[in-house]
Each structure stands twice: as structure tokens, then as C-alpha cells.
Design a protein that fits this description.
Blueprint lengths: L2 H7 L4 E4 L1 H11 L1 H27 L30 H37 L1 H15 L3 H11 L5 H14 L3 H14 L3 H8 L4 H37 L11 H6 L4 H6 L2 H28 L27 E4 L1
Parallel strand pairs: 1-2
Length: about 325
């Protein structure tokens, strides 16, 4: 075959774009979502680095220095000091690490339970679906604050770390119902499609049908829901800390730090006690919500995204080959 014939064949080159690559490209199109991702990664890096420094250096968060009480922010104390003269900078950042722990563990628990319950209910249907949905409705009707107060009283004598983990699991156990309903609805529509009929005809086990064929088709929606649950778990723990129902001193949390700045005198004269934890909490929740919105737009099949052909470049998603127009096939 001559070089001339090869050039003619290259006039129409098909490029297959994977769903994952397409999702990433759509996410990059949302500038606010990308900004939220970078802000989230930056905050997580700083918070984790502070946590590592405190643990490796043996920094004592409970050490008191009344001579420097209510010291305004300065080069020595970047975030100022509290009433007892404790440096506010490491305490605020460590409070962020507690919030990240709560968000990750509570989100994992709620996502796991919601995914399993929704998948099983949607796949089997009939009495299994009815039973699991009735249980879901009962769980969703539990009042959260009274349960949190009861748990706080029952486990009041337990160590702070154990109370924190109990709080995480309670938040996760009571917040999976919405995800279960969403997954159930998706599975009900997917189980009657051709690929599932083929899986049943091949004699594939029900567990494999659920977790190898159905769950991967709803995982994108689960990830979007997890970002919302992550932000909600952090806000819930902060609210409990503000009410004194979560961990207490000397372990700092953003809600606990804000609860100590709830008087007009402190808010006016010692503004740094509520400003810094409030700003960091706001920025973390904002970044997670921006990421969630970006993922929601990226996985939405009805989203209208315009793809422009680019010149041959390593940075382009779609590339022209041999200076000819290429036909794009999105798979």
C-alpha cells in the first residue's frame, strides 16, 4: 500500500472515548468544581500535615499558659490564643482533622448500608423489597437529636476517642435511607434490561449479578450522593459539638470551638475565636458541595456538553490525526 493510500484512509479516524475519560472531561469543564477540588485538596493537605506534626512532636494541646490568654493573632500566634493561652492555630486545624474523620467514616457507613439495602431490594423485589423499604421508612423516621442526647448520656463515662467513633457510626447508621431509595429505583429499571436477561440465562449467581453487573451502573450516582453525605456528616458533627453532645475538651472540634464563642462580648472583642474555625468550616463544606455539583453535572446523561475539536496536542481530549478531521465516537 502506498503512502498516498494511507493518507486517504486516515481522513476518517474513529476515536473511542471511555465513560471515565468523558466524565473527567465534563468535570474539568466546570471551573467551579475544579476550584472546589483544589481548595479541598489544599485544606486536607494542611490539616493532615498539622495532625502529623502534633502526633510526631508530642505537642500538648491541653498545656495552659494563662499569661498569654486572649492574645490577638500575630506572628507568634497566627490564629491568636484562647482564654487559657493555648495556641489557636494547631487547635483549629486539628479540629478540621476530627471533622474529616467524621465525614469519611460516617459517609462510608451510610454509603455501604444504603448501597447494599437498595441493591438487594431492587434486585429481588416482592416481599424482600417490601420488608427492606419498611425498615428504611422506620429508620428515616427516627428523630436524630433525641437519639444523640440519649447516646451522649449513656456513653458519658467512655473515653473521648470511643465517644467520637460512636458518634461517627450513629451519624452513618441514621443517614443511609435516601441513598437506599435512590439505588433501589435505579436497580428496578436496570434489572429488566437485555444485559441482565443475558446474565440470568448464563446462570450467573444473584450476588454476582448485583455487585458485578448492576452496582457498577449506579456507582456514579452513589459517588455524587457520597459527596453530599460527606458535607452533611461534617455539619452534623459540628452541630453536636456545638450543643456539647460530641467529644469535649481537650479534643478540639470546629463545633466545640464555635460553642465557646457564643457570647456577644467574645464575638466583639475576641473575634478570632469564632472567625477562623467558622471560615475553615465554611470553606470545607463549600469545596465539597462544589465537587458534588460538578460530579452531578458530569454523570447526568442529559447534560449538554459541547466538545470542540482541537489541533494535534498532548493536552487535547480529541486530537486530529494527519491534519485531517476525525470522526469522534463517544462510547
Amino acid at each position: 500500500m502506498s503512502k498516498k493510500d494511507k493518507k486517504v484512509k486516515n481522513t476518517n479516524v474513529e476515536e473511542v472515548i471511555s465513560p471515565t475519560r468523558l466524565l473527567i472531561h465534563r468535570f474539568k469543564q466546570n471551573k467551579l468544581a475544579v476550584f472546589g477540588l483544589f481548595m479541598f485538596l489544599f485544606m486536607v493537605t494542611v490539616i493532615v500535615a498539622t495532625w502529623a506534626y502534633i502526633n510526631l512532636s508530642g505537642y500538648n494541646l491541653a498545656a495552659l499558659n494563662h499569661a498569654d490568654g486572649y492574645h490577638a493573632p500575630s506572628l507568634k500566634y497566627l490564629f491568636g490564643t484562647d482564654k487559657s493561652g493555648r495556641d489557636y492555630f494547631p487547635r483549629v486545624l486539628l479540629g478540621g482533622f476530627i471533622s474529616l474523620q467524621v465525614g469519611v467514616i460516617a459517609t462510608f457507613v451510610s454509603t455501604f448500608i444504603g448501597l447494599v439495602v437498595g441493591s438487594v431490594a431492587g434486585f429481588y423485589g416482592k416481599w424482600v423489597d417490601s420488608f427492606l423499604m419498611r425498615v428504611t421508612e422506620i429508620i428515616s423516621s427516627f428523630p436524630f437529636i433525641p437519639i444523640a442526647v440519649t447516646i451522649s448520656v449513656v456513653f458519658a463515662k467512655y473515653p473521648q476517642s470511643q465517644r467520637l467513633y460512636i458518634t461517627m457510626f450513629i451519624i452513618g447508621i441514621l443517614n443511609w435511607t435516601g441513598l437506599a431509595r435512590m439505588v433501589r429505583g435505579q436497580i428496578l429499571s436496570l434489572r429488566e434490561q437485555e444485559f441482565m436477561l443475558a446474565a440470568k440465562a448464563l446462570g450467573i449467581k444473584p450476588s454476582a449479578q448485583i455487585f458485578k453487573h448492576l452496582v457498577p451502573n449506579v456507582i456514579a450516582y452513589v459517588i455524587v450522593n457520597a459527596t453530599t453525605a460527606f458535607a452533611g456528616a461534617i455539619l452534623t458533627e459540628s452541630s453536636l459539638s456545638y450543643l456539647g453532645l460530641s467529644v469535649t475538651e481537650p479534643i478540639p472540634t470546629w463545633g466545640g470551638l464555635l460553642s465557646r464563642a457564643n457570647t456577644s462580648i467574645i464575638m466583639k472583642q475576641y473575634w478570632w475565636l469564632w472567625l477562623f474555625p467558622g471560615i475553615l468550616l465554611f470553606c470545607l463544606i463549600l469545596s465539597v458541595n462544589l465537587i458534588g455539583e460538578g460530579l452531578r453535572d458530569a454523570v447526568d446523561p442529559k447534560a449538554q456538553v459541547k466538545f470542540r475539536e482541537q489541533k494535534t496536542s498532548k493536552k487535547g481530549l480529541f486530537k486530529k490525526k494527519d491534519n485531517n478531521e476525525a470522526k469522534k465516537v463517544v462510547a
